[in-house]
Amino acid sequence: MSEQVANDIIVVRQEMRPGWTCNVVLVFGEDKIGVVDTGYENTPEDYVFPLIKEQGRRLDEVSIIVNTHRDGDHIRGNTVFKERTGAPIAIHELEKEAVPTADTKLGNKVKLGDRTFKVIHTPGHRPGAVCLYDEASKLLLTGDSVCGTRENLIRMDKNIYINSLKKLLKLDVEMMIMSHPFAPPDKDILRGDEAKQMIETSIEIAVNLKQN
Ligand SMILES: [Zn+2]
């Protein structure tokens, strides 16, 4: 279920139920590995660690782990990851209290592998949700910050969510990797216009959403 999407990037998919997967993104640098989200308790041992070893790499090369936000499907592997790799876990300061296994607060930028990602604060699903943007390759990792038809995931005032998505629309995106296969495209990796369309559609859905 894993997919290599660039020389140095592998998306590890774990099937939760038919048609629904949860991702961990691995960024393989020359001598360091960056990880985005940790999945469930069994995700590291059953899915991620075997893959790192298959690549001829070592677990102690993992230098940093980012949690895009506080939800279980993104953080429950934290403890095992920390025990086995020794790497710190970074999260936005507004999520930190909700995730005791996180170690440090994200700054404006984070180095994953040999890439430098801008940390874009995109509240709406969660107060401290973030997207990661690599300007050099126009790669955007969105976690659950762009969730299309899943209106129930807009857990804050929808205007906060809409503003976050408008920030993303300004970015030049060649590839967007979401944590789940959100609809309408029902897939988690979108390229070029597909990505822009997904963000626009998500805004439209939120605009039409009735919140009390
Ligand atoms: Zn999720």
What can be said about this structure in brief?
With 212 residues, the chain is α/β, with parallel strands linked by helices. Helix content is 26%, strand content 30%.
Can you tell me about this structure?
With 212 residues, the chain is α/β, with parallel strands linked by helices. The chain is 26% helix and 30% strand. It is built from six helices and 13 strands. The chain has helices at 43-54, 72-75, 78-85, 93-96, 158-169, 193-207, and strands at 3-6, 9-17, 20-28, 33-36, 62-66, 89-91, 104-105, 109-112, 115-121, 130-134, 139-143, 175-178, 189-191. The strands form two sheets. A seven-stranded mixed beta sheet has the order 1-2-3-4-5-6-7. A six-stranded mixed beta sheet has the order 8-9-10-11-12-13. It is globular. Residues 71, 73-74, 144, 179-180 line the site of zinc ion (ZN).
Defining traits:
alpha/beta; Metallo-beta-lactamase, Chain A; 212 residues; 13 strands; 30% strand; single chain; binds zinc ion; six-stranded mixed β-sheet
Bound compounds: zinc ion
Order of helices and strands: EEEEHEHHEHEEEEEHEEH
Strand content: 25-35%
Helix amount? 25-40%
Determine the CATH topology.
Metallo-beta-lactamase, Chain A
The spatial strand order of the largest sheet comes to 1-2-3-4-5-6-7
Layout: helices, strands, pairs:
Blueprint: E1 3-6, E2 9-17, E3 20-28, E4 33-36, H1 43-54, E5 62-66, H2 72-75, H3 78-85, E6 89-91, H4 93-96, E7 104-105, E8 109-112, E9 115-121, E10 130-134, E11 139-143, H5 158-169, E12 175-178, E13 189-191, H6 193-207
Parallel strand pairs: 4-5, 5-6, 6-7, 11-12
Antiparallel strand pairs: 1-2, 2-3, 3-4, 8-9, 9-10, 10-11, 12-13
Helix pairs in contact: 5-6
Bound molecules: zinc ion.
Zinc ion binds next to helix 2.
